[in-house]
Structures are given as C-alpha cells and as structure tokens.
Amino acid sequence: MTPAITSPISQQQVHQWHSAFLQLNQARLECTRSLMSSRQQIVLDVLPLLLHLNHQQLPGFIDHQVPCGIAHYNASAQQLQSLQSIARGVQPPRGFSNRQITGLYLMGSVGSLAQARSSDLDVWLCYDESLDNGQLAALAKKCQLIERWAESQNVELHFFLMNLSDFRRGQSQSAQGEDCGSTQHLLLLDEFYRSTLWLAGCQPRWWLIPNNEERNAEAFWQGLVHHHRVNADHWLDFGAIPSIPPAEFVGAGLWQLNKGLSDPYKSLLKLLLTRHYASQYPRIRPLCWDLKDQVHRGLVDVESNDAYLLMLTRLTAQLQSEGSDVRIQLARRAFYYKAKLPMSELSTTQQNSWRASVMRQLCNSWGWNEHDFYELDQRPQWSPVRIARERNALISEMLSSYRFLAGFSQKYAPRLHISKGDLQVLGNRLYAAFDTRPGKIISINPGISPSLGQEKLSLNLHKNVWQLIPGQFRRNEADPTAAADREQVLKQSPSLVELLCFARMNDLLQSHTRIALYPQHNPLSTYELKEVLQAVRALQPYAPQVEDFRHPSRPLQWHLLVNVGVDPQHQLSRRGMQKISNRDDALGYSAARENLIHTIDLVSINSWGEWLVERFSGEAAMLQCLQQMLQYLPQTKHFDWPAMNIQCHCATRASAIRIRVEQLLDDVLRHFSDQPRSPYLIEAAETYYLLENSRDGVQLRIADSPMKLLALLQRPLSQFTPYILDRAALHSSPLRLIFEQSRSGLWQLFYWRKDERLYFYFLDEKGALLHQQWPDSTNSSQWLLPLVRFLRQLDQRWQQQSGRTQPRKLMLFELRRKAQSYEFEMVRRRLPELSAQSASIDLRAVLDAQQQPTLYCNNLEFSPWQFGSDLYREVAAEVRKLRSRHEDYPLCLSDVLVPDSLSIIEHLQVKQRLESRLNQAMADNNP
C-alpha cells in the first residue's frame, strides 16, 4: 500500500521550490561560464551532447553500440551552436528514444567564489542500472576519450560513473575521486547537494524535500507522487541526509589530513568542517540544509548560496564560540587562497567581476586592507622564516583536529568504515610528515610557496651552536660575536650538517646559492664547507610508496660525516704543526693513544622518506654512533644493512680517520650479523667500549681503566659467549691472546710474571674471565695447588649433580712477552699431579641465602651466629694451631658452596673475598 501524507504540500509550493532551484542552477552556470575561455565554454556546452549522441564526428565516438541518450534532454540553442563549432552539420535526431543515461551533474568549486580558470570539472554521470558490464565498460571508455579531448581544449575533466542504488547503500567505489569512498559517503553527498550543477537528465529529488522531512524522506516523496505533485520519472534519488554516522568524520578527517600534506590550505577548510560536524554529533545540521532552507525561502542569488561562503560562515561562528581569533584568521587565509583571486594584482576584467566584488566586501568586513592583500599575494616571495611560521600554524591546526577526531573515534566510532591497512598507511604518512623530534628534518613548505630557493645563506656560529639565516646576516656591529636576531634565524643546531640537510630538503640550497660563514675566525674552513656542501647536495631523497607505509620505517641510507668543523689536533694545527706517528689508528693515534674521532653526524634516510640527523660528540662519539646503528640489527634478518657512505674532511688525518671508520663499521656490523650474541670490544684512546646485544637492543658499556674492563669481563655468562676484539684493541695486553683461546666447555688458567707480581687469569667454560694478582713466588704450590684443588672440588660436586661422566678439562698456560715486542705468546704447562692435589687442612665455606658464610676447618664449624665479628679471627687461630710453627703461607679455601649458583666465576669471587678476610685476620693475629 502506498503511504500517504496527511497534509501534502500544494502544487504551487512544489513549483515554487523547483523554480527557485532552477534559477540558482542557471545563475551558477552563468558564473561558471564567466570564468571560462571561449574554448572551455564550448566544452561545457557540448558535454551533454557528446554523451547524448554516438556520432563518428564527435569526440569520444567508439561505435553505435555504446550506451547513450540522456533522459528528458533537449539541447538549448547555445548548446547546438557550440556543437556546430566542433562538428559542423551534426544535429540530434528527432524522436531520439535512447535513455541510457539518467543524469549529468557538475560538483565542486565551479559556479562558486572558489572557482578559478584552472578549476577542473568533476562530472557525475548516472546511468540506467540495467546496463551490463560490457556496456558499462564501453561507456567508461567513451568518457576517457572525451576527457582526453577536453584536455586538448585546456579543460581538466573527470567523469565518475554512478550506480545510484549502490551509492545510496554507501558503496561509492564507482566514484574514484580523492574525496570519495565508503569512509565518507554522506559527507560526500552533503558536498554534492550544496555545490552541484545540474547539466542534463533527471533532477535530484532532494530539492523538493523540506529539511524537517529528511528523516522521513522516502515517505514524504511517495506522498508527493501519490498526490500527483511530481512526475517520479523526472527525478533521481541520491539519498537523504537525516544524520551522519560518527565513523565518517574520522575517515574523512584522516583523508583530509592526508591531502593536506601537499595542499594544506585546501584541506584545512574541509578538515575544520569535519571537526565542526563531529562537535555537533548527534544533532548534526549539514551545510546543504542551510542552502535548501534559503532556496525554499526564495533566496536564489549566487552569493548567498555560495557553497564555500556557507562553509566559511559556519566555521567562523564555530571558531568565534571557541574564542580563537588566530584560528579564525588562519581559516580566512585558507579561504582567500582557495578563491585564487589576488586582490592586489587584479586585472581590469577581474576587478569588474562578481567574484572580486564579493571578495572585497568580505575582506573589508574582516578589517583587511590593501597592505594585507599585498602581503598575502606575495606568498610566493615570502621569506623562509615567514613560511616556517605559517607551516607551524597549519600543522598545529591539523594536529589539533587529528587529536580531536582520534578522541571522538574512541568515544563514538570504535569500528571505522575504513580498512585497517588504509588506516595504517594514513597514520604512518601523517606521522612521517607531522611528527617532530630532535634531529628530524622537517619540510616547512607543504604547498605554501612554489620555491624557497635562496641566492644567499648565512651560517653563524654562536657559543657552539650553528644558526641558519636566509639572506644576509645583519650583524651587531657593537658586538660581532652576539647571537643573530631571532627574527633572522630560520633554524639552529649544534650540528652544521643538520642545518645543511634542512636547507637541502627544503630547496633553500640551490646550485647557485652562496654561503657566508660567520664569525670571520671560524673552525670550519672554506675547503671543508665546500666538501660538506657537496656531500649534502649529493644526498638522494627517497619517495616512499604506499607499500612502504604498511610497515615500520627502516633506514635505507646512512651517511656519516666525521669531525665536521673540528680539527682533532687544533692545538698543533694553529702553530702550523701536525703530529706524525707510525701508529696511525684514528682511535689510538701515536704513542699518546689519542682518539682523533671527536664528532660524527649520522644522516639517516628511511623508507618513509624521513631524514634524521643524529650528532655524537666526545670521546665515545664513534661508539655511540655504532650503538645507534646496531639498533637496526633485528631487521637485518629480513633486509640488508642500509647503504653507507663515510666522509671526513677535517684538517688533520682526514683520510686515515675515514678509512678507520669504514673498517670499524664493516667489522662491527658484519660481526653482529654473524655472531649477534658475542660482545665486541673496542679500544679508543685509553678507554674500553663493549658492545653487547640484549633483548633491549645493543648496549654500550664503558670502562675507563684496565681494572674496570676486567670487572666487566668477569661477569658470569648464561651460555658460551666468546668476546670478539676489534683489530686494534688490546694489542699490548695478554687479554687478546687469552680471548683467542676461548673454548666452550673448558676451564683455562693463565699466569704472567712481571715486576715480582703474578697475574692470574681464569677463563671459564662460558667465556667469562676472572683476574687476580699476588706477590710472585717461585713456589707454585703456594698459589697453583690450592687453586687446582678448589677447581677440582667444585667440578666433582657439579659432575655428580649433573650426571656428567667425565670431569671438566682444565688447561694451564704461562704468558710471556715476545723478545723486543709488546705482543704476548703462551706456553702450555703441566698441571700438578693428582697425588699433590689434596690438602692437609680442609677449609670450606658455605653461604646462606643472605650470603653469610659458615666456615668449616677440618669439619669443625664456625658460624657467624656463634662468633659474630670474631668469625675470621677464630678460624685463623684454628688454622694456625693445625700448622707447623715454621709454616707461613697464604690461607686458601678448598671449597665454597654458593646457593643457587653454578657459576665458577661467582665461586672464585667468593673464594677471593673470604680468603682476603681470613688472611687479614691471620696477619693481625701473627705473634
């Protein structure tokens, strides 16, 4: 049963509304034509005829089987005249019955204040839904041919083939424009209704439905049909807009942010409108309702119904309610640039146009004057400092809107109508473009100015911070060392490379750009500046593809610039001298072991197109840089190491420094690729650096003395881990030879006699190293026998616990320096016979959970609870009683039991600590 309405509107009312919309439509078409050249006007005029007919003389002709014929279309005299100008003699046949195209519409900026001569024509073509796939393909091909012809006539034309049934269900894939997609179906429809121009065919029935009936649109329309107020065959249903689902705001906002990367002014207004709609949720009033209300009241002039003016009026009211004059001015600037009407440079024709008249009235109401117009129209010549400020204002507004929409999404739209993949791509693109962090090179010109190229750039060094100044540096003559005026400085950083990369990425640095250095006496030489500039100019940006944003970013290129503006031997260089040495390791140069690598600037270009500059300075600069690069280690399972380029142009030993850095990078990166679990030891000057891989990434441990290094090396290990030494590390130390002997499962003893001292090293089965030293004694029984007894005792106990069938192998080596050399050699020595590996006094220690020792001397117990602070004195006294009077040698433990530990290193450390306490007690009580 057909639904009826209780109080149908009158036929006169329907006619009045219809006439009003037709008047507005005609006025908009006239405005559209007024901005077109004669050739562009002809394209607009003949557009319906090209689709209405299949004629071999017309652009787009394929054959007579292509769908054609526009419903209820009769060409106007003007259209027929234009048709003759492109195909003389062609006339539409009388009684033409094909109606396979149901409607033709323009949408966008045409006919509005925002239209410019360069505005493209977006045409929605609605077709008979009974067409099969082959017919649709032929129609699409014809549209492509017409687009190419229009391009030859200096018109950018785009067709969007619309299946209205799919469109109403939100399936707008047929509209393949940037503003389309299921993420913003009703927002797109809102824009269509407020900006559409009807060209031919059926008209949108939305024009005849009052706003208060939007939520009941179908029933209202059926009532009009039922009461014969309309002929349904002449109207098309694009859908009503009773409300807008929250997910659309988030999807549309992300798309606008994405588009804003290249044209922020254009996207800003739509982004603000999306945010405004979201703030109204759930009681949303679309802008197209404002248009319909005005037209239903008989207000049909172009200015009052301009789609962009309606938007700006609504946005201004919203921003005023939020009390943000800065944001209002930004929105007005965006509107001004969208209109593409430079008020200070208008031609005579433009000055007399309706657009200029409307814009002048509008700007006057804002308080703008000729000076404001001139400044805005000089945007292509804005200084980089001015552009950077404008960029920051635009990005701040975009990020603020993003945060608002993100919060809105969490509250109202947890399930977005956008694929996770697309959402990830958009989010990553926004992060790459908008995220700021130390060292990241940002683009300050997202479509604000056509070029930032500078004739001259000034670089000023003030208190170890470089300042980048476009143009001439205006120095303070009274104080030449003073910092530059903040209004002059575009960017500043301790890293000169960061500033030059910034200039390079933002195209300030051109082939003809001259660079001026301040102050006059500068650590950066003209030669070095030239070389560094050449290196920076040679950097190759990476243009990321969509697929790149589906994955985390990864570095693709590494460029290391060493000692930029630094002379590692400046004290000598100032006097015209340089130190010469046959020891040319840049990390330990000459006998003084100088580290010549003072600074490194690491430039990284990644798969998201980002540039990052990280500066490392000081004695550990090379190692900190290595540590940072090694954070990429987990990704080398799937990708190669990034391409690398190393440069050094400093005044001293530049070539040797570059070669050493290349060698070190090659050695370290290859090592961690092949043996990621093995620590890598590097010696620089008189400091030792240990790079270790862990779950938290590669860690850098620093030891500034040999004893601190030994403390690092004696840490117990969970599995066999050989230490790998850099090619220049520990050349004059026995440790190099010891670590070359490291073998899994072995216990190895090394000793070295020097200056009446005995240096003892123990390398356990997992690669940990323990070092001790004592006064030398020619009697090996005083140190070797007790140590071997101790090791055998522990091994026997652990062998029984683990069920091993064989004792652990123990090896003994003596270390000696080679004749007239700093290098070491080792000699295998025999271990004491088993018969000698037992002691007459059995002294053992057992630690409890609190690490408190209970000592046993020939099974006699001495506990801390029994003797307190006198524990060690009592044990020493007992040992003295058991010895012969003439015996005086260090007291040694034959066994130690440490709870919950199977580390021989930990047991040896406990042994050493307890023996020290016992021997001190023995010495204190010596009669």
From TrEMBL:
Q: Name one GO biological process term.
A: cAMP biosynthetic process
Molecular function, one GO term: adenylate cyclase activity
Q: Which domain of life is it from?
A: Bacteria
Q: Which Pfam families match?
A: Adenyl_cycl_N, Adenylate_cycl
Cross-referenced InterPro entries: Adenylate_cyclase_1, Adenylate_cyclase_1_N
Give residue ranges for domain Adenylate cyclase class-I N-terminal: 14-207
The name this protein goes by in its record: Class I adenylate cyclase
